[in-house]
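tokens incoming
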């Protein structure tokens, strides 16, 4: 799987010659990604094939419109690229229609609002501090200022979504649009449960599977396809494609979605990204990817058990997917302090609010960690005890100010990473 080692100036020879300054930064980032244990649940390592596709001359084309209905000539090849990618997306996720043009997850979600709502209409989504995404109607987002955002959360006692609360809110507020899914949700999403609420109030139901798309494609999380009207997803998280997004829908919504993306919100699609999404979708349809998706979940569950055994407080008590949300209150270390110490130790995580957090969003009580990237390196469940022990030592070191432990763990991390070369990083 891993490409042979190539020195930095030979990996990107034209870049090194034309712009040594930026070439050096790219090489440094490659080294950083190779040597660190990357536990950000929304990040991954794309394959060398996806990297190559996203750096092609498809970059040079303007293609406003859709295959067969463009505003520019010269689209003989681009039409085939986009059609192939859209067909793969429909097949993999089992939906009638796929729009593969959204620039990223946030614009994809805004296109959904444009397709179904008028300014001021009501949207029901999960609140940001409870695990939802900004674009599900949160106040500082355009979606929460131009629309009436009503927000559900998770129960204090279970850390899980309470569908009775969602139903009560839906009946009281009569939203036109309901989002399920989120960005810090460690548990399975009950698409059928949300669908019955959406039907009852006549709302369009959107599953935002940005985080779990790869798990769904790989059969490690139930699919929303039989239940929802629209599926919104990024392509760069567990799906392991380039930075981008897709909107999938039932046939009846195809026209509204397409018109919202273009000309409603965007101009020309990023064709090099479309091609790279196509490559990632082909990879995601393989048996190898199915084992990958299963291993991501096994690694997350095992890491959760190892952390819980060391006294870490996991929101909802564990995980069904690729991520863990950890409340560090009992460890007496704020999330940001822990995340910064872990970063110095070569373990990359993000600080995160936990449900009912008593601290501020920019200085919250928790951290969020995930296993997609480490699993792409082939790191097995048997190493999760080591990973949990590092996290434990560094969080304790952050509390006591013991920088020598942080330095020791940094060396141990690099040594383990050397044994599991990352895809797409042929470093020497
Ligand atoms: C990451 C994410 C998005 C936004 O994606 P961007 O590409 O960062 O704009 C939207 N929804 C959810 C649930 C996400 O996790």
């Amino acid at each position: 799987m891993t490409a042979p080692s190539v020195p930095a100036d030979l990996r990107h020879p034209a870049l090194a010659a034309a712009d040594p300054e930026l070439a050096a930064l790219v090489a440094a980032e490659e080294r950083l990604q190779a040597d660190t244990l990357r536990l950000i649940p929304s990040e991954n390592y794309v394959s060398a094939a996806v990297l190559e596709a996203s750096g092609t001359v498809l970059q040079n084309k303007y293609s406003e419109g859709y295959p067969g209905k463009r505003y520019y000539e010269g689209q003989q090849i681009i039409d085939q690229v986009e059609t192939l990618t859209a067909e793969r997306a429909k097949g993999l996720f089992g939906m009638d229609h796929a729009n593969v043009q959204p620039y990223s997850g946030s614009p994809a979600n805004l296109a959904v609002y444009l397709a179904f709502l008028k300014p001021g209409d009501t949207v029901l989504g999960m609140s940001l501090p409870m695990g939802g995404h900004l674009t599900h109607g949160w106040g500082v987002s355009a979606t929460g200022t131009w629309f009436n955002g009503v927000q559900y959360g998770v129960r204090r006692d279970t850390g899980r979504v309470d569908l009775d609360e969602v139903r009560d809110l839906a009946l009281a507020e009569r939203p036109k649009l309901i989002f399920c899914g989120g960005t810090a949700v460690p548990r399975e999403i009950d698409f059928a449960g949300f669908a019955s609420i959406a039907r009852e109030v006549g709302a369009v139901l959107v599953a935002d599977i940005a985080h779990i798309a790869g798990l769904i494609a790989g059969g490690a999380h139930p699919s929303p396809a039989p239940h929802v009207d629209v599926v919104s997803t990024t392509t760069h998280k567990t799906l392991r494609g380039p930075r981008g997004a897709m909107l999938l829908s039932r046939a009846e919504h195809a026209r509204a979605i397409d018109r919202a993306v273009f000309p409603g919100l965007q101009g020309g699609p990023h064709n090099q990204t479309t091609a790279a999404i196509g490559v990632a979708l082909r990879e995601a349809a393989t048996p190898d990817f199915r084992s990958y998706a299963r291993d991501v979940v096994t690694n997350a569950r095992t890491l959760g058990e190892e952390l819980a055994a060391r006294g870490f407080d996991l929101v909802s008590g564990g995980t069904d997917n690729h991520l863990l949300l950890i409340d560090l209150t009992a460890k007496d270390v704020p999330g940001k302090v822990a995340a910064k110490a872990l970063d110095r130790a070569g373990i990359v995580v993000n600080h995160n609010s936990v449900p009912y957090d008593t601290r501020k969003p920019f200085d919250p009580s928790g951290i969020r960690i995930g296993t997609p990237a480490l699993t792409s390196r082939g790191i097995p469940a048997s190493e999760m005890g080591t990973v949990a022990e590092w996290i434990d030592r560094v969080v304790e070191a952050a509390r006591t100010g013991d920088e020598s432990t942080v330095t020791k763990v940094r060396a141990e991390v690099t040594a383990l990473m050397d044994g599991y070369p990352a895809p797409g990083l042929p470093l020497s």
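note: The CA atoms of residues 54 and 280 lie 11 Å apart.
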